[in-house]
Amino acid sequence: MPKLDCKNEDAFRAGRRQFLGYTGAGMLATLLPGCSGNDDSPPYPQTIAMGQQMIQQAISNAQQPVAGISIAMLKGSTVVWQQAFGVSSVPAQTAATTQTRFNIGSVSKLFAALAAAILEDRGLITLDTPIVQYLPTFSMLSPEYAKITTRHLLSHASGLPGTNGRNLFTFAPVAGYAADTQAELANTHLKHLPGELAVYCNDGFTMIEQIVLARTGQSFASFVESSILAPLKMTNSSYLTSVPTAGSFSYPFANGTQYQEFVNAYATGGLSSTPADMMNLAQMFLGGGMFQGQRVVSEAGIAQMGTDQSTGLLINPSPEWRWGLGWDSVQQPALAAAGLLGWEKDGGTAFYSSEFFVVPKAQFALMVTGNSGYDARKLAETLVLSALKEDGTIAALPAQVSVTAPPVASGASVANAGGIYGNSDSPMQVVANPDGSVVLNQWNGAKRVWTQVGAYQYRSDGWWWSNSDSASYRFVVASGTDESGNAFSYRYLMKRVVPGAGYAYLTLAVGQQLAPLAPLDSAWQQRLGTQWTLTNDSPTAVPIVILGNPPAYLTTLSELPGYVLYGNEDLRYQLFVPLSDDRGGMSVKVPGNFGRDLYEIRFASASSATALTLGSSVYALA
């Protein structure tokens, strides 16, 4: 999501999520740090002292201060550290406390997965039954929609386009988001076959809301509150379905104004909670579904959530992505480097960033959440591994991986690698040179030009490096035959980075090579150069209030005939394939995070020049 997403690292998110992921931190006012919490002698003195120092540095950063951060750490059934830093209200300088609630974004996806597990425990669904059996009103334009299962929804493998951006984040509650999402899906195609690949998909979790409602008669928020939050005694957690009249909350402060953020996609990112409450959830995970002697969900349900769902994917060029059900990773890379199995879920909204770690064998968990602007993954990885070393679970920290370019090598061919690579963010251009080096450019949407990312040479480890860039690149071809018997071959530009505390590489497909198409016909040619303004978001929608509803534009790339480029600083920039004179379709299948939140673009008719629909958002000619 927009940061709902998610996806494992803020820097990997794109599209509307990119705006929603970054702007909140930059608009925070100067603040007076404060803290509160448990001052008893802790069992992890070194780790806690390190964490306190790192968090104090984040909230005191003169260039990008973070208003508030809250953290909790669990060992067994004991919360060994909980503390809040900074302020919950910038104008009032109200100190944050351990009862202050933060919007935890995509960490909320774990509650959708738990809800599905509970429904299965009650015999109301099975994970591998097509959801049309529970939602007969659900439909899409691609006939394969009838194969989508609950497992697909919860493991990002459904093929749904991505995220319904309309009224996702607002400054007042907006009802009906899930129903609006289902209605929009009826008029769009799948972006890939169910189970073919996994690409971060918020709409899959939103559809869990509809399944819960259909099978129980309860709204998703009501079901989670009665079946999960109440038995877990998570008394400082709730979905903001209305303006709250009680409780302590962290408030975004932007452009001199204090707001309250509402995330209307409840299942995918809408829970407001505290790290202390999340430690109750962690105890339930560590207890195999039990909490304080009460069974909340079956042990089999917890095991399913923690099972690697990526093993059957047809296209998976990023082996470090080990999706669970709800979990981003059930083999967390930094913990795997230390020889431990760990589960991780990150989360972000327009103004908040969170990380949740559970380490089953060590009976350990950590939750950190706070206003955007700090590196939640780095903080969480650092503290989890430090604590596990301090208590003797691991003998030593794993070695940090190298970000230094190895020696130049020869022998790699890039003859077929040049061209334009599409994604959900903004297109990439690969210039393949005769000497085997490559130049990477990215589309600068604001200036409508290509901006050079860097020049890279092939190195002895099989990747292309620049001496000035810690990231490295290579090309991977995924080929085979899909379940319909159709042959496929996709060339991906892969990017390798070292996120978090630096203990493991993470590779991502950042673009798919696209072949030129027949020239655009006259109906599409006439639309090039036009600009469009969003008309049907709530006036309280975060992009409307903060960005001022910037127009989007339609254009094309001279280097890639036959495609239409559409976007702005909010939506980002995507390449569409004309499906007809009144509809443009999705052009890429990119696993991971750079193929998320794709859209179809529609006009009222082939000759219409005054109305455009993107997802469920309606635009007028500017």
UniProtKB/TrEMBL annotation:
<protein>
    <submittedName>
        <fullName>Beta-lactamase</fullName>
    </submittedName>
</protein>
<dbReference type="InterPro" id="IPR012338">
    <property type="entry name" value="Beta-lactam/transpept-like"/>
</dbReference>
<dbReference type="Pfam" id="PF00144">
    <property type="entry name" value="Beta-lactamase"/>
</dbReference>
<dbReference type="InterPro" id="IPR001466">
    <property type="entry name" value="Beta-lactam-related"/>
</dbReference>
<feature type="domain" description="Beta-lactamase-related">
    <location>
        <begin position="62"/>
        <end position="386"/>
    </location>
</feature>
<dbReference type="InterPro" id="IPR050789">
    <property type="entry name" value="Diverse_Enzym_Activities"/>
</dbReference>
